[in-house]
Amino acid sequence: MKKYILITLTVCCVALGYSQAKKPTLMVIPSDVWFNENGYMTTYENQGNIEKVPDYKRAFQESAEVNQVISQINGLMAERGFPLKNMESALKTLASNEAEDNMRSSKSGAEITESPIDELKKIAKADIIIQLTWTVNTMGPKKSISFNLQGLDAYTDKQIATAVGTGEPSFSAEIPVLLSEAVLAHIDNFNETLQLHFDDMFENGREIIVRIQTWDDWDGDLETEYGNDGEELGFIIEDWLDQNTVKGRYNTTDITENMALFEQVRMPLFNDKGRAIDARRFVKELSDYLKNEPYSIPNKLVMKGLGRATIILGGK
Hints:
InterPro entries: DUF6175 (IPR046173). By secondary structure, this protein is an alpha+beta fold. It folds into two domains: about 20-200; about 205-315. The protein has helices spanning about 1-20, 30-35, 55-60, 65-80, 85-105, 115-125, 175-205, 235-245, 280-290, and strands at about 25-30, 40-45, 50-55, 130-140, 140-155, 160-165, 205-215, 225, 230, 250-255, 260-265, 300-305, 310-315. Strand 12 (about 300-305) and strand 13 (about 310-315) form a beta hairpin. Helix 4 (about 65-80) crosses helix 7 (about 175-205) and helix 5 packs across helix 6.
């Protein structure tokens, strides 16, 4: 009897833990294909190069369809317990910060270069971006929807889940309804794959990229030796990553006297106090570690998107 009670309690605890498992935060956005096909593209300058990007703000202001479709998918995800960030709200926050960002520059006068999607991700702080493409098919009086859902890791842009399909033809002219009907047959498998990816991040850490560079007027480099044992700076940084990444997981992709590239760096999702942390806060700890004794190396931390951090050694 005691054994039976113990087994029952164990099963209940496992079930309770599973039901309370943390869900990834999502944000649904239309794909670049949809923006291009519907004439909602604009250009911006990126280090002298002109790039074509979606005009998110104009699309939400002018297209009732995009608002309805995003709301429909948001509803389907929310019903399944996945927390969502609202893209339209994120865009409003982004717009309020735009003037300040345009005025910001480094002490050397260099401007911040960041793509619109990177800026949007930074504001939304979602774990996963769901990129949605939909096409209306017309067959006489009937219509159907073809769709493509892509789940992208917001930090690495790696595709982690996908669902593609076409709904049954219908006399209904409501595109959001047709899309919902088409997606319903696939969404549970899609969500399961998203959750598996997030569970892996929870256990093994979030993947980011860390780059180390040096200012050309700095009198040190990654081969400079520190301490009584004369350990080179490059190895000191690797030792820090060994101790602070989840299970010591990272790859030293490239390292020279003036630069180092660490990929697949697995940072924890939460700190010791249980608070969520991002790549900037995680790499800031390495930045501070190098600034303090015994190294006393002034440095500058620069972020590109959510998941790529660069520490430039030798000054601000």
